[in-house]
Structure formats: C-alpha cells, structure tokens
C-alpha cells in the first residue's frame, strides 16, 4: 500500500512542479536556518567535561559590604579573594580543589633568537590538572608542595611546545616568563574544553583555543604576574592583591557524591558565618553550584546566538504555515480525484495516509536541501568575527536531527490538508463531473 | 470598488484564507521586530564619539619587570613621540574609547545619598582633551600644575589623605545634565567613593566611554582627571596628526619606541578608525544576519502568496470567464485580485501588529531591549502591503488574460 501511495504522491508532485519546488524551497530555507542556529546553540551550551561535570562545583562567597552597589543586585560576587581561596584550599574539605586566575604572560623563548610574545596563561594550584582531567603528553603537573615553596615550574600546552620546541619532549627545558626562568615539568596534549568554563569572569575567552601556559599561583605572583580581571569592592591598599579587598580567583572543588556535596555546602555556610563573626564579611552568604548549573546561570551562551535561534525557529514556523496553505489549496483542487477514489472503495484512513505520504516526501526533499543551506549557514558563521566561529561544524547527530526536524515539520504541515481531504464527501464531487 | 463580493468569495475559502492571514501576521510581527533590532545595531555602530577619530593613532606596549623609573620613561617616550614630524600632541591615557575594559566610578551629588546618581568612566592622562580633540563647551581644560602621579594617588588613598588629591575634573554635558538638570555645572561638586568631593572646572561637548557593557548605562557619561600615568598603568600612547599622515606617523612611532627600549612588546597598534571598526564588528555581523533573515522571510511569504493566488486563479477560471462574458473588463478582474490580496494582507497586518507588540514585550523582558518606537509598525505594514501587491500581480495578470470564451466551454 505504501508503495502505491508513494507512486501517487510522486505523480501529484510532478504534476505541479513549480508549486512543489516552492514548497520544498521554503521548507528547506526554514530547516537550514534553524539547524544552523541550533547546531551553534548546542555547541555553545555544551558540557565541557561530560564524564565529570556532575562532580565539579563552583564556590562563591560574599565579602562585599552591604551597601556596595553590587550587593543590591542580590547576586553573589563571581570570584573569591585570595584570603578566602587560600582558607578553603588549606581546609582540605574536598578531595581536590583549585583556585584559578588568568594572566597575560610575556614569554621569551630561550632556545631561539625569537622575539618575546604574549600568551594566555593560567595561574592555578596543584589539583587543577587531575580535577579537570587535562591529559599529559610528557611529564606531569606540580604538587601541593611546589605551591607552598613557590617552585618555578610550568606546564605548557601542546601548541606552545610545537611552536617553541618543535613538538619534542621539552620536560626539563627552561621557559622565560616575565623575565624569570621557569622549568617545564609537563606538556599537555591538546586540551580545550568548550565552553572554557574555568576562565569565566577571569578575563579569558569563553570559547576557542585552549590556554598555553599553566603556572603555580604562588610562583606566578612571586614573578609579578597579575590577573587579567580584578574587581575591587572596598577601600584600602590595592597594590598587594593577596591582602587587598579585591576578588580575582575562581574556585573549584571536586566532590564525588551528593553527601560530599552537602557536607561541603554546610562547611561553606559555617565558614561564611565564621567570617562574619571575625568581621571580614557582612553577610553570611555562600553558594556551591555544579559546573553545568554555574554555566547556565551565568548565560555563557551569547544573547546574539539565542536570539538568532529564536528568529530561525519563528522562520521555520512561517515556512510550515506556508506549506500548510499550499498543500491545502492543492488538495482542495483534487477534490474530484479524491471523490473517485472514495467511490471506488478507498477508506478515509487510506486517503489520509496518501496525503501524509505526499507531505512526508516534501519533508525529506526539504531536509536534503535544508542540509545544504545549513552547511552554507555554518560556513557563514565560521567567517564571523566571534571567538566561537571556528567551532561551527555539523556533526552526525545534528545531521540526523535535520532530517527528523524536516520530516516532523512537513508531517505537521500535512495533517490539516490530509484531514480536509479525507472528510470530502464523494457524491457531490462525482455529480458535477 | 465594492468589496462585498470579494468577502463573500473569501468566506468560501475560510481555512486557506486563515492560513494566509496567519502567515502574513507572523511575517509582519517578525519583520517589525527584526527591523527594530537592525535599527538598534546601526544606532550603536554609528554612535558619535566626540573625539577626532580620523586624526588619532595608537600604540599599546607592554613593558614588564618592575622598573621604578616608570614616570621618567613615559615622559621620555612622549618627548620622543612629539618630535615625529606631523604629530601635534601625544597622551598616555588609562583607557581608550572603543576598548572593551573600562575604569568606572559611582557618582553622587550628595555625600549621604544611598544610591549613586550614575556611574561614569574615569579618563586619566596628560593632554588627553587636546589629543582626543574633545570640544570644551564651558570652563577650562585641566592645568599642568594640577596633575599628580597615579602612584601618589594610590598612596594618598591608602593613607586616607583625601584632601591632598587633585580636586578639579572635567565632565561631559550628558553627565552634567543628568547630575544637575537645567543648572550650570561649573563649580558644582560631586562625590566619589567615601564622600570625596570633586569640583567641575570644565564641561566637554561629548566623550564616549569605553566598555560595551557600560555603554547602555549612558554612553556619554565620562570624566577626565588630572592624573599622570606610567606605561604599565596606562593603556598605550595616542598620537594626534593629520589624517593623511597616520600611516607614516604610526611607523615612525614604532621605531622611536623601539629605539627607546627594544625589550618591549607592541601588543596592539593602529588608527582610531580601525579600533572603532573592530569594536563594532560583532554588531555589524549580527545586523547582516538579521537583514538576511528578513529578506528570506519576505521571499518565503511572497512565494506563498504567489502559490495560493495562482491556485485561486486556476480554480476560478470559469467564473472569471463568465464575468468577462458579462462585461467585466480586464482591469476589473485585475483589480478584483489586487483588492482581495489587499484585504487579506490588511487582516494579516492587523493581527501581526498585536503579535509584534507581544514579541517586543518578550524581548524587553529577556534581552533588556528598549520598547519598540511606534514608527516601526507602519514601516512593517508598508513592506507587507508592497510585498503582497507585487506577489499577486503575476497571478492577477494571468486571471485578467482569461478570455470570455472560457465561459461557454464545458469543463
């Protein structure tokens, strides 16, 4: 039966080539636009560490004075002060914890006569690599003891290793950072989680290439490296960041299960309360959010992208309405044909199925062309001046999704015309002929 | 033209008509809002800056390793830069217009005020007003003897010696108007931080503030302070010269700076025009996308109208023939279809306006956009009426070409 409907549908579509082309084109444009933006949205709102994200938590505290303008927003400050970060770190209440800040670092190659250049660097503590599962090509990270002794060690990324040492094992070689020598102890394999969750509010990029240099926080500060972002909230000396009323560190904790998380949360509450009693805080507020919740709440996905997605789906909606109208007009013109088929014994479900097959066919054709439009759309996005531009590629699941969306859209568009077709009473149609 | 017979016919095609009206309504709603969004982007891209954009070049340098003679080195650099032929004046500011980062303060007109009146940016740097080419409309520029070093400012703040701080400042007219509406701002005082008073000695016509996120708070809320910086504290050197000299001056400046200290890295350089162009790159790309979507939408809707109208013409072939045989002219038939389309489009536009308003409300809540001015509604309506008439013309002409003899043929 299906083959017969397919045959009927093909004949019907062929009879009116221009109209068929119009329907397919309109649907394809709608599908193309929606799939382009949906691909981008999914990419940008993706999970940077799918296996581990549920175990990673972001810590926030509130050292701000009550009357500070920011406090009126009722949000918690995004970052921690050095004092709080170190207090939490040394309390050892989680299996792994890390404080993170970003810095623009001046690197001077010691091997060649190349000029110094700037690179994005991360200042962090020992657990960073293990906690975020950064893979090592050579060597490894540093230890908590290195943090304490301000050891002049550095971990570099694969791209930088290729640039400076031609990809050879550079462990043990030296790298000049801000005119101080650091010993390379590890080389990372390519690592750039998207979004760049750990650099949020720290002044790094949210998407794109990974960072090049990782230095122990204390050693970096000893070498006079400054964070890119610092938010000051009070009076006092801002020159020494370690004691200044300035927030500049992101803080992460790895907590293996729910009970560990709730234990850590109550530890934070107690800590904030204790700081209020000490007079350092004015309000005992704290927060512990999972990685994905943190990314969501901070609207990492640019507004532009969300707006484009909304726009593209409204466009698809209009394309569907357009297809419904055209299919309906077409089916009403075929009232006589339907009358004859009904008189010859075709049931209402049979007529309905016949028209749905026709709509589905348009959907599949629309999906195929829509894929071309989506590829074109993504190509356009790759040429945009955004930091996420290079990520815009169609993957297999989105490829399948395109056809699913197209088929569903066309079937929705087909329901009304098919229903109208199957309720046609055969007798009057036959009479006038 | 009598529209009753048209309405009567349309009633027989209720469902198809509803769909067409719905499609036009959605299109109208989205096109109105999209044009509004495009307008917003264009407004932002063309925002006036108040500075001599075409006469400025900048060099940002990084100079790392805590040297203690920062002030002397900055003075030496600027002296060298001023000697470049064609350079009229040089400054070392803490921030530049069209930067993404910015330095800001809360401003109060009364030290005991709980909520600040506004937040404004703070520009520091010697000769900044002259270099930027900012126009002073009242009062005077900052005097050389008023300037202090930023390092000393930090020390004074840390020791709470607020009275030693420089007291003069320049503000923009926008900011003055917001702080003291309708009054003469010269000599007035405002308060920053823990109630430190500062006196307005001059008013600038306009000076744009840096920072994309800050612009929505008032793009013209800027102040200029008599504070000198070292290169580490500053953003980079800005040189003013004639527009045609910019390339040569930039090249000469790079050479001079390299000669003064070969160990520094140039992190950014270019003309202010390029800097502005880069700053608005994302807005331009987004405006492009929105224009594309708008056109695609209108094309799809036009194609839908063409398709439906063609069907109706084919369906009514016979009745058109009858009308022609009974004496209707080609013009009558043409106008019939045009009027029919006009009626349908008008209904769609009516519904579309309501939807457009709804979408605008949604955008206001979720994207912090301003309310859409009423002007955009008639613009959207006009576009759809035009599209409708253009789309229906082809099928209508075909209908008008139906010969009266059709009436006598049996189908």
TrEMBL record, chain A:
Superkingdom as given in the UniProt entry: Bacteria
Chaperone as UniProt keyword: no
Pfam families: FtsX, MacB_PCD
UniProt membrane topology term: Multi-pass membrane protein
This protein's name: ABC transporter permease
Gene source species: Dyella acidiphila
Occurrences of domain MacB-like periplasmic core (ranges): 20-224
Domain ABC3 transporter permease C-terminal: start-end pairs: 311-423
Keywords of the record: Cell membrane, Membrane, Transmembrane, Transmembrane helix
Membrane spanning stretches: 21-44, 310-329, 350-374, 394-416
Record's subcellular location: Cell membrane
Keyword Lipid metabolism: no
UniProtKB/TrEMBL annotation, chain B:
Protein location: Cell membrane
Protein name per the record: ABC transporter permease
Keyword Lyase belongs to the record: no
Sequence similarity: Belongs to the ABC-4 integral membrane protein family.
Keywords: Cell membrane, Membrane, Transmembrane, Transmembrane helix
Residues spanning the membrane: 20-39, 285-314, 342-363, 375-397
Organism this protein belongs to: Dyella acidiphila
InterPro entries: ABC3_permease_C, MacB_PCD, Macrolide_Exporter_MacB
């Amino acid at each position: 039966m299906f083959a017969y409907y397919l045959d009927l549908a093909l004949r019907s579509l062929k009879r009116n080539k221009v109209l068929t082309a119009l329907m397919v084109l309109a649907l394809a444009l709608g599908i193309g636009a929606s799939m382009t933006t949906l691909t981008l949205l999914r990419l940008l709102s993706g999970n940077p560490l799918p296996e581990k994200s549920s175990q990673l938590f972001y810590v926030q505290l509130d050292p701000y004075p009550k009357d500070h303008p920011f406090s009126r927003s009722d949000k918690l400050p995004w970052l921690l002060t050095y004092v709080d970060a170190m207090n939490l770190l040394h309390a050892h209440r989680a299996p792994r914890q890390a404080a993170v800040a970003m810095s623009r670092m001046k690197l001077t190659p010691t091997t060649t006569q190349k000029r110094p250049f700037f690179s994005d660097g991360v200042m962090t503590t020992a657990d960073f690599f293990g906690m975020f599962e950064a893979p090592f090509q050579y060597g490894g990270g540093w230890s908590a003891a290195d943090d304490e002794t301000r050891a002049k060690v550095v971990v570099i990324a694969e791209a930088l290793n290729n640039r400076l040492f031609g990809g050879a094992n550079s462990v043990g070689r030296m790298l000049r950072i801000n005119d101080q020598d650091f010993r390379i102890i590890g080389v990372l394999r390519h690592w750039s989680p998207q979004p760049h969750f750990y650099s949020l509010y720290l002044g790094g990029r949210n998407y794109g290439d990974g960072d090049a240099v990782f230095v122990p926080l204390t050693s970096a500060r000893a070498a006079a490296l400054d964070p890119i972002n610092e938010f000051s909230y009070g009076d006092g000396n801002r020159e020494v960041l370690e004691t200044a009323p300035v927030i500049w560190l992101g803080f992460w904790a790895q907590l293996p299960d729910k009970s560990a998380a709730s234990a850590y949360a109550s530890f934070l509450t107690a800590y904030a309360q204790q700081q209020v009693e000490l007079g350092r805080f004015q309000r005992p507020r704290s927060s512990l959010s999972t990685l994905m919740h943190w990314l969501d709440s901070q609207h990492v996905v640019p507004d532009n992208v969300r707006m484009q997605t909304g726009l593209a789906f409204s466009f698809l909606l209009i394309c569907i309405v357009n297809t419904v109208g055209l299919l309906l007009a077409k089916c009403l013109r075929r009232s006589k044909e339907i009358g004859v088929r009904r008189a010859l014994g075709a049931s209402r479900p049979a007529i309905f199925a016949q028209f749905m097959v026709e709509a589905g066919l348009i959907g599949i054709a629309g999906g195929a062309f829509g894929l071309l439009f989506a590829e074109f759309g993504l190509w356009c996005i790759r040429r945009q001046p955004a930091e996420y531009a290079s990520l815009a590629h169609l993957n297999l699941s989105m490829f399948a999704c395109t056809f699913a969306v197209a088929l569903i859209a066309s079937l929705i568009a087909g329901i009304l015309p098919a229903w109208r077709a199957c309720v046609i009473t055969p007798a009057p149609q036959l009479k006038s002929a | 033209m009598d529209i009753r017979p048209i309405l009567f016919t349309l009633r027989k095609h209720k469902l198809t008509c509803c769909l067409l009206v719905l499609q036009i309504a959605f299109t109208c709603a989205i096109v109105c809002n999209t044009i509004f969004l495009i307008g917003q982007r264009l407004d932002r891209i063309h925002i006036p800056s108040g500075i001599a954009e075409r006469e400025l070049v900048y060099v940002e340098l990084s100079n790392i390793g805590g040297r203690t003679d920062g002030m002397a080195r900055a003075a030496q650099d600027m002296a060298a830069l001023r000697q470049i032929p064609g350079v009229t004046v040089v400054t070392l500011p803490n921030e530049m217009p069209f930067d993404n980062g910015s330095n800001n303060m809360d401003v109060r007109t009364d030290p005991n005020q709980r909520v600040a009146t506004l937040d404004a940016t703070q520009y520091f740097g010697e000769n900044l007003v002259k270099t930027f080419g900012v126009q002073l409309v009242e009062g005077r520029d900052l005097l050389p003897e008023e300037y202090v070093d930023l390092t000393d400012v930090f020390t004074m703040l840390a020791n709470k010696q607020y009275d030693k701080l420089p007291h003069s400042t320049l503000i923009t007219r926008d900011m003055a108007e917001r702080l003291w509406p309708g009054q003469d701002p010269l000599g007035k005082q405002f308060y920053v931080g823990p109630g430190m008073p500062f006196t307005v000695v001059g008013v600038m016509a306009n000076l744009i503030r840096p920072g994309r996120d800050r612009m929505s708070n008032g793009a013209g809320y800027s102040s200029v302070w008599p504070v000198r910086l070292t290169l580490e504290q500053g953003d980079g050197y800005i040189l003013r010269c004639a527009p045609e000299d910019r390339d040569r001056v930039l090249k000469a400046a790079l050479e001079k700076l390299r000669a003064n200290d070969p160990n520094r890295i140039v992190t950014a350089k270019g003309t202010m025009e390029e800097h502005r162009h880069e700053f608005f790159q994302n807005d331009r790309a987004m405006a492009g996308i929105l224009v594309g979507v708008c056109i695609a939408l209108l094309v799809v809707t036009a194609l839908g109208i063409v398709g439906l109208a063609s069907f109706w013409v084919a369906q009514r072939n016979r009745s058109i023939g009858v009308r022609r045989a009974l004496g209707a002219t080609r013009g009558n038939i043409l106008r019939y279809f045009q009027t029919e389309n006009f009626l349908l489009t008008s209904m769609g536009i009516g519904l579309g306006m309501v939807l457009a308003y709804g979408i605008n409300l949604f955008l206001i809540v979720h994207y912090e956009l301003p309310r859409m001015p009423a002007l955009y509604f008639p613009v959207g309506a006009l576009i759809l009426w035009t599209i409708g008439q253009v789309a229906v013309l082809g099928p209508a002409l075909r209908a008008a070409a139906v010969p009266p003899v059709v009436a006598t043929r049996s189908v």
